[in-house]
Specification:
The protein is α+β, with helices and mostly antiparallel strands and 495 residues long. Helices cover 27% and strands 24% of the residues. It contains ten helices and 21 strands.
Length: 495
């Protein structure tokens, strides 16, 4: 067993279910990932043969806790629960080798903690292999999702697969993985470009001493001492299994640092602050929702602990400090997630008593809807559920003043509906990143900077959207006045 797996086993001993108070047992008590596990028929004692599959998940973002041999054609697979929290079992990511050419198998993922799933609507796992390193989705016709009486009536996802190359190692995952190491390589490559409008800082370290990166994208003039700053703050991957959020976030970054004329104008007028991975330990360990210590970090914004939730604590301290700075206008906070039961991209926003503020909050999602064909305003909703009180959107929505807008940006794990078509289009890594680029472009419309672009065809917006833009522009004059008053009086008010 690898060092990581031994550590997980040690930390998960005597974990108690937070809902029932009883000790987790049976399937829920799985600890550690399988490590080069060779699965042979019961009673088999000879040398392993081709076709005796070897399963492994002891790698970064891997997750597979147990394999049961049913027959030479069928295997039951058990997801390892999040470290120190047996409630969450959704993400899986494992490899299979020692296959036989033309070997047909059925894999049953038998212990999902969720009942609702996009697997009911045609979603399928992704696969790659040594000779075909690009991830692709399995054919939906080979995937089945059903309630199984053999597994405590849990929902089971079964998929059929035929191995075609004996020397290949095959890897299967819930969705396209985006690891901590991938992010670090990406940020390292950006740093090496020495862009004068891109800055990378170490904001803090996780419990396991992984980097919490803070990126700043803006023209240098906006960072000079005493300059007024309009800030858009974006975070992602507070829930580690929601890997599409990282592709969206990378799409945002790629666009903002590009030479696209829209990006250049945005850098001249706005300061973009981005924390691309809020939960690096959870991502590295292959958790779905929790940190190393079993916390759902997106329920701890109200009072994050510097030792138990250090990444969240660091980001909150930064945002609070920016909010108290009279030279900073923190205008947007957007937290990027992935959704396991809905299609398209969409947003969650907050609920306010003032009707005018409600309308102002709807402006940005409407503009995104125009720029991104996969974004759905009809799926966008505004709520104040009690159980969401500790989320970034809810907490910061109450902390920041009424000139700031806080959203959760969600994107489907599976697909979007394009135009009037009734056939879902599965997301790819590229289309996730495209959504990020389109969200970035939308700030040009929101800040009414279109006239600074030579080619207006790049940023054409319709008359219906313009009316919302005018509303936003009018309200912006009001908020600029409030910010001026804030700077002149030095009175921070009640937040």
């Amino acid at each position: 067993m690898c060092v990581l797996c031994k550590m997980e086993r040690k930390m998960e001993e005597n974990v108690r279910d937070p809902d029932t108070g009883s000790e987790a047992g049976g399937e829920d008590s799985l600890v550690g990932n399988v490590s080069k596990l060779q699965v042979t028929p019961p009673g088999y004692t000879g040398l392993p043969r081709k076709g005796h599959l070897v399963f492994d998940a002891c790698f970064e973002s891997g997750n597979l806790g147990r394999v049961d041999y049913i027959s030479e054609f069928e295997f039951d697979l058990f997801i390892r629960p999040d470290t120190c929290n047996p409630r969450f079992r959704v993400w899986f990511n494992f490899s299979v080798e020692n296959v036989r050419e033309s070997q047909r198998v059925i894999f049953n993922i038998v212990n999902f903690s969720k009942t609702k799933s996009l697997y009911r609507d045609g979603m399928s796992p992704v696969v790659k292999s040594t000779s075909r390193p690009k991830w692709q989705r399995l054919p939906a016709k080979n995937v089945y999702y059903y309630r199984c009486p053999d597994h405590r009536k849990n929902y089971v996802m079964s998929f059929a697969f035929c191995f075609d190359k004996e020397d290949d190692v095959y890897q299967f995952a819930y969705c396209y993985p985006y690891t901590y190491s991938r992010l670090q390589h990406y940020l390292d490559s950006l740093e090496k470009r020495n862009l004068d409008y891109f800055q990378r800082e170490l904001l803090g370290l996780s419990v396991q001493q992984r980097r919490l990166d803070l990126l700043t994208v803006t023209s240098r003039a906006n960072l000079r001492p005493g300059a007024d700053k309009k800030v858009v703050f974006l975070t992602a991957r507070v829930h580690p299994g929601e890997s599409p959020a990282s592709f969206v976030c990378q799409g945002v970054i790629d666009f903002l640092v590009s030479q696209n004329p829209v990006a250049r104008v945005l850098r001249d007028h706005v300061v973009f602050k981005i924390v691309p991975m809020l939960n690096p330990d959870g991502v590295y360990l292959g958790n779905y929702r929790c940190s190393l210590m079993g916390f759902d970090l997106n329920r701890h914004w109200q009072d994050p602990s510097p030792w138990a939730h250090p990444t969240l604590h660091a980001v909150k301290q930064l945002i609070v400090g920016m909010n108290d700075d009279p030279r900073v206008s923190l205008e947007f906070y957007i937290d990027v997630h992935a959704h396991s039961t809905m299609m398209n991209g969409f947003m969650y926003g907050n609920v306010f008593e003032e009707e005018e503020r409600v309308h102002r909050q709807a402006v940005f999602p409407r503009l995104v809807c125009h720029n991104a064909p996969d974004f759905s305003f009809s799926n966008t909703s505004f709520n104040r559920d009690v159980v969401k009180a500790g989320t970034g959107r809810r907490f910061l929505g109450g902390l920041l003043d009424d000139t700031s807008y806080c959203y959760t940006l969600e994107v489907s794990f599976y697909s979007y509906m394009a135009g009037v078509s009734s056939v879902p289009v599965p997301y790819t890594e590229e289309t996730y990143m495209k959504l990020g680029r389109n969200v970035s472009r939308t700030f040009l419309d929101y800040y009414r900077l279109n006239n600074l672009i030579a080619d207006n065809s790049l940023t054409h917006i319709g008359r219906d959207v313009l009316s919302y833009g005018r509303l936003a522009n009018g309200q912006r004059g009001l908020q600029d006045g409030r910010k001026s008053e804030k700077r002149g009086s030095g009175n921070q008010g009640d937040r």
